[in-house]
Amino acid sequence: MGQEIQLDFISSDSLSTKSSLEKIDLILNRIKNNVIVVLEEGLTPLEETELIEATMREIDAKDFHGIEFYRIDHKATRLREKIANYIAGKKMGMTIVGPTRVVEAIKREPDCISMLARGGEELSTSAQGAGKSTKKARKPS
């Protein structure tokens, strides 16, 4: 029988009142506990950069090896949708973030996103992300 893998789905409403730093802390605290985080709302490019920088500062050879993350953009196609989203301040998209030790691969296919993850206490440190769509924040060997 396989080990359990925890996924936390975080709504855009719960993130809307948080600063960028608070969002990053929320994500990293969960990731350090081997939880895969799915954010209903995508992170901004600046928040992604801050997440990578914070991850690099937190990496520890024994307990925390880094993150894998993928942003899925949902783009409005009609002008009316674009204007409505801009006025409403909506950030379109979703972000998936997981610990390197758990996420083996995140792959974008034409009609879905596939994630291969593994659980358990005997997680090896050699988990490798696959696919060009995966962003990584790992300490160089």
Walk me through the topology:
Blueprint lengths: L5 E5 L1 H5 L3 H12 L3 E5 L5 H14 L7 E7 L6 H10 L5 E6 L3 E7 L2 E6 L17 E4 L3
Explained architecture:
- With 141 residues, the chain is α+β, with helices and mostly antiparallel strands.
- It has one domain: Methyltransferase, Cobalt-precorrin-4 Transmethylase, Domain 2 (2-Layer Sandwich), CATH 3.30.950.
- The protein is built from 4 helices and 7 strands; from the N terminus they run βααβαβαββββ.
- It has a 5-stranded mixed beta sheet. A two-stranded antiparallel ribbon has the order 5-6.
- The chain is globular.
* CA-based shape: globular
Query: How many domain modules?
Result: 1
Low-confidence stretches: 122-134
Sketch the topology as an H/E string, one letter per element: EHHEHEHEEEE
Looking at the structure, the CATH topology is: Methyltransferase, Cobalt-precorrin-4 Transmethylase, Domain 2
